[in-house]
């Protein structure tokens, strides 16, 4: 959540009547987090926002693709004790949202490759969505306004916000899709006591883009898919759900260009936590961006081999040569499970001596709970990765 914003029409105080010029009553709608104790946004609608109706039965799409959660059958989840490399560029473009690749009780990691605009609205009822746009550009259209995004952006869609994705141009769209059941946002340590981003935080309020609100609109669309984990339910409205005349609050979509992250540099190699960008329930999201490297004359700039016994580590490779890795490329997703030693590929540690700068761009997740791969992930696995550390 960022600072409070307010657009359009709203009454001078919460829960007071708001009337249109015609005299008709507007309908207040509160989107609240942590019950009524967390961040919130209050929107004012032309129509009753609860006037929607379920259509058909819920659709169940088990995350692992096995059907095990649906009927109790199927293979058990595969426990990862090997280092894995998944090639998202091997995934076929697909409609219907993100293809899940790895998951645990806190989050789902997937890949979204839309080929055209959404023809219905979507609402994630259970998880904040954070996309990293590897390629493509578009607009996230929500009842709270339009948010433009492009490659290199993180895009956050808070749970409960109705939206539709509009793709722009002909460039293939590929986004890393992260869903966090416990929410995602700015680490508390980055804020001062009044909620402002601190002077020593790695970004400021100016580094974010927010929605552009232009009042209610009717795109002729009435359906919304509400999603809660593996369950989806279709609803239909009798009116346009983009009927908001004004809103006031701190819960809204935003975008953050990864290159706006201000990296830390030290005399010796800093652990990834210094590159922490966003905090989620069960995970820390880190950004690696171009920067000078360690400046001690005897520094080893390459990451040191390590055993992280309490975290599963994911890295999504975006751009530039990654100092510690061979065989990965743009769109690669590596998974290093807890407890298994990992570190630079042969020659990279020694070869880093004297290096002064890196142009790497990557997104890293440290995940507190063990991650399991889906069948979709196993289908795009680079089977040579586990054996690539011997030299
Ligand atoms: Fe690591």
Can you describe this structure?
The strands form six sheets. Strands 16-20-12-9-14-7-6-28 form an eight-stranded antiparallel sheet. Strands 5-25-24-27-22-21-15 form a seven-stranded antiparallel sheet, with no helix packed on it. The protein is 3% helix and 39% strand. With 391 residues, it is mainly β. It is built from three helices and 28 strands. The longest helix has 4 residues. The structure holds fe (ii) ion. Fe (ii) ion (FE2) binds next to loops.
Q: How far is it from the N-terminal to the C-terminal residue, by CA?
A: 46 Å
Low-confidence parts lasting 5 or more residues at pLDDT below 50? 67-74
* Percent strand: 35-45%
List the total number of helices: 3
Shape: globular
Cα-atom radius of gyration: 22 Å
The hetero compounds bound to this protein are:
fe (ii) ion
In total, the number of strands is 28
Overall mean confidence score, pLDDT: 92
Q: Please describe the biggest sheet, giving its number of strands, its sense, and whether it closes into a barrel.
A: 8 strands, antiparallel
Query: Strand pairing plus helix content: what structural class?
Result: mainly beta
Largest beta sheet: what is the strand line-up? Answer: 16-20-12-9-14-7-6-28
Work out the helicity level: under 10%
């Amino acid at each position: 959540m960022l600072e409070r914003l307010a657009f359009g029409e709203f009454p001078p105080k919460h829960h007071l009547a708001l009337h249109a010029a015609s005299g008709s009553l507007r309908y207040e709608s509160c989107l609240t987090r942590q019950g009524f104790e967390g961040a919130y946004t209050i929107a004012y609608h032309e129509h009753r926002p609860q006037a929607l109706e379920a259509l058909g039965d819920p659709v169940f799409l088990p995350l692992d693709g096995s059907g095990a959660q649906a009927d109790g059958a199927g293979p058990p989840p595969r426990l990862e004790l090997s280092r894995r490399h998944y090639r998202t560029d091997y995934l076929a473009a697909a409609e219907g949202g993100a293809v899940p690749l790895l998951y645990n009780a806190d989050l789902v990691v997937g890949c979204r490759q839309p080929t055209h605009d959404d023809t219905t609205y979507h609402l994630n009822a259970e998880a904040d969505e954070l996309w990293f746009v590897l390629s493509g550009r578009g607009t996230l259209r929500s009842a709270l306004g339009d948010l433009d995004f492009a490659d290199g952006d993180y895009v956050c869609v808070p749970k409960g916000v109705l939206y539709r994705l509009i793709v722009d141009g002909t460039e293939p769209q590929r986004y890393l899709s992260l869903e966090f059941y416990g929410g995602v946002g700015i680490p508390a340590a980055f804020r001062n006591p009044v909620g402002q981003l601190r002077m020593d935080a790695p970004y400021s309020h100016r580094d974010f883009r927010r929605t552009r609100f232009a009042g209610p609109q009717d795109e002729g669309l009435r359906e919304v898919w509400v999603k809660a984990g593996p369950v989806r339910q279709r609803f239909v409205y009798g009116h346009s759900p983009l009927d908001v005349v004004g809103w006031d609050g701190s819960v809204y979509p935003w975008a953050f260009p990864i290159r706006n992250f201000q990296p830390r540099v030290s005399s010796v190699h800093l652990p990834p936590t210094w590159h922490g960008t966003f905090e989620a329930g069960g995970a820390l999201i880190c950004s690696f961006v171009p920067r000078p490297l360690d400046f001690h004359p005897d520094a080893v700039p390459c990451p040191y081999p390590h055993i992280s016994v309490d975290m599963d580590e994911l890295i999504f490779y975006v751009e530039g040569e990654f100092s510690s890795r061979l065989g990965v490329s743009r769109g690669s997703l590596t998974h290093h499970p807890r407890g298994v030693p990992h570190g630079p590929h042969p020659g990279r540690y020694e070869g880093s001596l004297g290096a002064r700068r890196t142009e790497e761009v990557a997104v890293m997740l440290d995940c507190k709970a063990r991650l399991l791969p889906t069948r979709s992930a196993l289908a795009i696995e680079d089977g040579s990765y586990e054996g690539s550390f011997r030299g």
